[in-house]
Design brief:
Layout (H helix, E strand, L loop, with lengths): L30 H11 L12 E10 L18 E10 L14 E9 L2 E8 L12 H8 L10 H9 L5 H7 L14 E2 L4 E4 L5 E10 L8 H10 L3 H11 L5 E9 L1 H11 L18 E10 L4 H6 L12 E2 L4 H17 L75 H9 L2 H15 L4 H14 L1 H13 L6
Antiparallel strand pairs: 1-2, 1-9, 2-3, 3-4, 5-7, 6-7, 6-10, 7-8, 8-9
Helix pairs in contact: 2-3, 3-12, 4-10, 11-13, 12-13
Organism: Duganella flavida
Keywords: Heme, Hydrogen peroxide, Iron, Metal-binding, Oxidoreductase, Peroxidase
GO molecular function: catalase activity; heme binding; metal ion binding
């Protein structure tokens, strides 16, 4: 194929710059050279602050069970109905060139291209998180990144934050179990993590949590294997996912949800003391059983990684009619932060890119800006004021009003909330060998921090379960750390 400039002009010579004589100097009029170097200097867009290293694939979601009693969303309208999807998996704390096998939560961001617009379920491979309020998210992520002086990852920063943040213990316990190093992306579960809501045709709201259960089975890496693969094949998860799909071995997940009415959640909170909208907590399956919904299958690899994966821009604010949010403080922060990040990272009109554009017709009155591909043409770019509103028969997506209560203020429930029971429950679910691995996985980085931080963190383990604290103490002592 004949090489051209970006404007389609044939290039006479792609091997030699235009020079004054055989030895130069180079002439500024060599536009092909200048365009090549200019574009090369701009080939990278800013990497994501979190979830920078990732892999993506397309697939289909197929409805297997009727949930129309909970939602009017059209993608669930009939058993057997299929919706095109895109998934981006990722690590969280590492840079774009980091290893796929680092101990880290994994992002599990799922887009449904529905006939009513894009629904983005932007979750992780864990059902809980380290913090419960988005105002602490930048602080937390700073501890997972590099020390501003040494430019090195810092166990001191991590455990200083965690030891002063008891609400993190539930997720810390999950992170330092073998689930913190999954064997690629195909062998792990996914979770929406937050509490969301569904609205049915009668305008009734229920609250839900989304689960994606791998049909390949859970497989994790030992700490030693994860470290070995980080050196031998830092792109291990990317290679595994792409290769499996290319070979026709399509990974699948069973999509399920937990459902509760507002009254049921209020009764559960009264009994347990746990806020159902707290992201550091889970809804136990014995209280809220999993309900099957459908199957997600990934069956097509991207053709262009940069265009389809690097520039993919998902946001939990993207919900379709029949869906809604919840009072989850972390979710409320993410509703703003994700879209804002995409505006900065990809651009004002990032929704015009094929991977981000809805598959259904769309019309808005946004105009112009960089990369304005679908710019509205001759259609009007304004909507006049109407006394009854533009949608007098419903609010927003048709969501019923949400009753709010209380004076506006900054409320701190920490110190009065139970941050230990669910972490202890998770610990007690682990068999003895998994507990032993947990102790050693924690003791490795914890042994590198000050005695003061160690003492604070051990106190949290003790409150979750006495055996938890004792096991970590023994693992620290085996590393020569003197602990009480």
């Amino acid at each position: 194929m004949k090489i051209t400039t970006a404007s389609g002009i044939p290039v006479a010579d792609n091997q030699n710059s235009l020079t004054a004589g055989p030895r130069g100097p180079v002439l500024l009029q060599d536009f092909h050279l200048i365009e090549k170097l200019q574009h090369f200097n701009r080939e990278r867009i800013p990497e994501r602050v979190v979830h920078a290293k990732g892999s993506g694939a397309y697939g289909t979601f197929t409805v297997t069970h009727d949930i129309s009693q909970y939602t009017k969303a059209k993608l669930f309208a009939a058993v057997g109905k299929q919706t095109e999807t895109f998934v981006r998996f990722s690590t969280v704390g590492g840079e774009k060139g980091s290893a796929d096998t680092e101990r880290d939560p994994r992002g599990f961001a799922l887009r449904f291209y529905t006939e009513e617009g894009n629904w983005d379920l932007v979750g992780n491979n864990t059902p809980m998180f380290f913090i419960k309020d988005g105002i602490k998210f930048p602080d937390f992520i700073h501890t997972q990144k590099r020390d501003p002086q040494t430019n090195l990852k810092s166990p001191t920063m991590m455990f200083d934050f965690w030891s002063k943040t008891p609400e993190s213990l539930h997720q810390v316990t999950m992170l330092f179990s073998d689930r913190g190093t999954p064997d690629g992306y195909r062998f792990m579960d996914g979770f929406g993590s937050h509490t969301f809501s569904l609205i049915n045709a009668a305008g009734e709201r229920v609250y839900v949590k989304w689960h994606l259960k791998t049909q390949q089975g859970i497989k994790n890496l030992s700490a030693a294997d994860a470290t070995r693969l980080a050196g031998e094949d830092p792109d291990y998860a990317q290679r595994d996912l792409f290769g499996a799909i290319a070979a026709g071995d399509f990974p699948r997940w069973a999509v399920k949800l937990q459902v509760a009415t507002e009254a049921e959640l209020a009764a559960w909170e009264a009994r347990t003391g746990w806020n159902p909208f707290d992201l550091t907590k889970v809804w136990p399956h014995k209280d809220f059983p999993l309900i099957p919904v459908g199957v997600l299958e990934l069956n097509r690899n991207p053709v262009n990684y940069h265009a389809e994966v690097e520039q993919a821009a998902l946001s939990p604010s993207n919900v379709v009619p029949g869906m809604g949010y919840s009072p989850d403080k972390m979710l409320q922060a993410r509703l703003f932060a994700y879209h804002d990040a995409q505006l900065y990272r990809v651009g004002t009109n990032h929704q015009h890119l094929p991977v981000n554009a809805p598959r259904c017709p769309f019309h808005n009155q946004q105009r112009d800006g960089a990369m304005a591909g679908a710019n509205g043409s001759a259609s009007v770019n304004y909507d006049p004021v109407q006394s009854n509103g533009s949608n007098p028969h419903g609010m927003g997506h048709g969501e019923p009003p949400l009753a709010l209560d209380g004076a506006a203020g900054r409320y701190d429930g920490r110190g009065k909330e139970d941050d230990y029971t669910q972490a202890g429950d998770l610990f007690r679910l682990m068999p003895a060998d998994a507990q032993h691995k947990l102790f050693n996985n924690i003791a490795g980085p914890l042994s590198q921090v000050s005695a003061e931080i160690i003492a604070r963190q051990l106190a949290h383990f003790d409150q979750a379960d006495a055996a938890y604290g004792a096991g970590v103490r023994a693992a620290l002592k085996a590393r020569g750390v003197n602990v009480a």
